[in-house]
Design a protein that fits this description.
Layout: H1 2-16, H2 22-43, E1 77-83, E2 86-93, E3 99-107, E4 116-123, E5 126-133, E6 142-148, E7 156-164, E8 167-172, E9 189-193, E10 196-202, E11 217-227, E12 230-235
Parallel strand pairs: 8-12
Antiparallel strand pairs: 1-2, 2-3, 3-4, 5-6, 6-7, 7-8, 9-10, 10-11, 11-12
Length: 237
């Protein structure tokens, strides 16, 4: 009788053990990203990655929620954005030599525990601010990630993703990465105004110290344009 009882006990334990499919495991991973981002944003409602007031982004329309990112150091920088019925959990990990940013998109009207993740690799600098917009007015959300390099120049960069029918497409930086004009030494500031990304930075004359630019400020505006090879930020003339 003892062998039969042992067999029945083992069979019962096996039947009651939870087994996860690959889809379940993927959903758990995306849920963890969303949970990590939400907790970080809630715990740090007024800080950005630089530890101060953010200088990029714009007021959210109804149904949207502006993210907050926190000072990360070696820890993740996280935030959550909303656009209509969709939520985007953002987690930035790594340092300036190997940073990646993951965006987990979920449908709030469907199964919000499942999300499709997009990973942006080889990100330069520290994440300062995230913003969700619709610059080209096509009713589809665009997520913009503003970073700055470390060091005295503090060069700014912009990374972007747009979602068309819930599928992610990269936004190329385009003219943001154009050759630096005379007098440029970084210290970029970005914000969004009237469906354009606005960039400003101090202008240096020959001989100026890094702490004392004397050439005023230069402002450049960029709009989102659809190109044959995708979407790109182009300078507004």
């Amino acid at each position: 009788m003892k062998p039969i009882i042992c067999f029945l006990l083992i069979f019962g334990i096996a039947c009651n053990s939870p087994m996860k499919s690959n889809k379940d495991i993927d959903a758990d991973s995306s849920s963890a990203i969303q949970e990590e981002a939400s907790q970080s944003a809630a715990a740090n409602p007024s800080e950005n990655a630089a530890g101060g007031t953010a200088n990029a982004g714009s007021a959210m329309a109804a149904g949207e929620e502006e993210s907050n990112v926190r000072k990360g150091g070696t820890e993740p920088v996280s935030g959550t954005l909303r656009f209509k019925d969709h939520k985007y959990a953002i987690v930035s990990k790594g340092d300036g030599t190997g940073r990646s940013i993951t965006i987990a998109a979920s449908d709030l009207k469907g199964d919000s525990s499942k999300a499709d993740s997009t990973v942006i690799r080889d990100v330069k600098g520290t994440l300062l601010k995230t913003s969700i917009e619709d610059l080209d007015n096509d009713k589809n959300p665009e997520i913009y990630l503003f970073t700055t390099s470390t060091g005295t120049d503090a060069t700014g960069s912009v990374y972007g993703v747009t979602y068309i029918n819930n599928k992610a497409f990269s936004i190329l930086p385009g003219d943001v990465n154009a050759a630096a004009p005379k007098g440029y030494r970084g210290r970029d500031s970005f914000y969004i105004q009237q469906r354009q990304i606005v960039r400003s930075y101090p202008v240096y004359e020959d001989g100026d110290l890094d702490s004392k630019p004397s050439g005023g400020k230069r402002t450049i505006k960029y709009g989102l344009k659809k190109q044959a090879n995708g979407y790109m930020l182009k300078e507004a003339k």
